[in-house]
From TrEMBL:
<feature type="binding site">
    <location>
        <position position="280"/>
    </location>
    <ligand>
        <name>Mg(2+) 2</name>
    </ligand>
</feature>
<dbReference type="InterPro" id="IPR044015">
    <property type="entry name" value="FBPase_C_dom"/>
</dbReference>
<dbReference type="InterPro" id="IPR000146">
    <property type="entry name" value="FBPase_class-1"/>
</dbReference>
<feature type="binding site">
    <location>
        <position position="116"/>
    </location>
    <ligand>
        <name>Mg(2+) 2</name>
    </ligand>
</feature>
<dbReference type="GO" id="GO:0006000">
    <property type="term" value="P:fructose metabolic process"/>
</dbReference>
<feature type="binding site">
    <location>
        <position position="208"/>
    </location>
    <ligand>
        <name>substrate</name>
    </ligand>
</feature>
<protein>
    <recommendedName>
        <fullName>Fructose-1,6-bisphosphatase class 1</fullName>
        <ecNumber>3.1.3.11</ecNumber>
    </recommendedName>
</protein>
<feature type="binding site">
    <location>
        <begin position="116"/>
        <end position="119"/>
    </location>
    <ligand>
        <name>substrate</name>
    </ligand>
</feature>
<feature type="binding site">
    <location>
        <position position="115"/>
    </location>
    <ligand>
        <name>Mg(2+) 1</name>
    </ligand>
</feature>
<keyword id="KW-0963">Cytoplasm</keyword>
<comment type="subunit">
    <text>Homotetramer.</text>
</comment>
<feature type="domain" description="Fructose-1-6-bisphosphatase class I N-terminal">
    <location>
        <begin position="5"/>
        <end position="193"/>
    </location>
</feature>
<dbReference type="GO" id="GO:0030388">
    <property type="term" value="P:fructose 1,6-bisphosphate metabolic process"/>
</dbReference>
<dbReference type="InterPro" id="IPR033391">
    <property type="entry name" value="FBPase_N"/>
</dbReference>
<feature type="binding site">
    <location>
        <position position="113"/>
    </location>
    <ligand>
        <name>Mg(2+) 1</name>
    </ligand>
</feature>
<keyword id="KW-0119">Carbohydrate metabolism</keyword>
<comment type="pathway">
    <text>Carbohydrate biosynthesis.</text>
</comment>
Amino acid sequence: MKRISLTQYLVEEQRQHHSIPAELRLLIEVVGRACKTISHSVGKGALGEVLGALESENVQGEVQKKLDVISNEILLEANEWGGHLAAMASEEMEDIHPIPNRYPKGEYLLVFDPLDGSSNIDVNVSIGTIFSVLKAPEGMTEPTEKDFLQPGAKQVAAGYALYGPQTLLVLTTGNGVNCFTLDREMGSWVLTQRNMQIPAKTKEFAINASNQRHWHAPVQRYIGELLAGSTGPRGTDFNMRWIASMVADVHRILNRGGVFMYPADNKDPSKPGRLRLMYEANPMAFIVEQAGGMATDGKKRILDIQPEKLHQRVPVFLGSRDEVALVTSYHQEAV
Ligand code: F6P
Ligand code: MN
């Protein structure tokens, strides 16, 4: 089999579709390189003394794991000096990180969740890195948080790395979704799946069912119907999976279909859902739509949401088109 590297893929995409200018290619390659380094640290586990929690909390009030902080540092350091970025923002940092003055500045903004699936870090279950790329607004001189607050539809690239039995990089630049596998011996990303497509129909769903008593009526209705199985209104049995790493759950859905949900609920009405719009929902929604799926906040398309804050949370329903459309219609009917 002829092996196509990430670099070759990016160069050929630019030649054919003009969708990946040189600076964006550099950015994607640098992020890919940082993900290899993170994969290496994750893989060392206890031997690298990288497991466990720190005493610090992140801006969300969550305890930071050592690997959260290590992954954040790896991404910052890798992306600072190349001249392709104006600023970065991370789930693990309260404020944006402008490129230091000693380096040239580029025209892109990079947003990331350095290590997604925190509860799985110390127990050797799949985790990942999620990233999203925006263009800096025209005429921007000193980047501020406001420059990042663009709807997800403006993303020029998004992707994730999955640190599982294999390390994978899934990428979209707005022309379909492709998957690369890390060749650990060669240290290179090799194209292994072209044009991933999410089946429109599915019999599998993913939700943290321990929150059931807190769910709003449309989610109760939808999940109730799925659980009723072959004797219920859907007339068929559904299966459930919940890894508690969004990257791993979304990757399964990209491959074999399914619907992933993290709704807002009554547990803490001050929080509109658990997942973050900029670091998790937007990049995943871009990838899912590019693979023929659908992504909403229950009522509207995630990619159309105008962000108000960097660390904003949002309800998420994404995956196979028919199911996301159905659960969204239940929310729309309820208003
Ligand atoms: O980053 C948030 C996250 O860890 C996601 O990766 C995952 O889907 C979700 O939270 C897990 O939530 P819970 O702890 O409720 O299962
Ligand atoms: Mn996360």
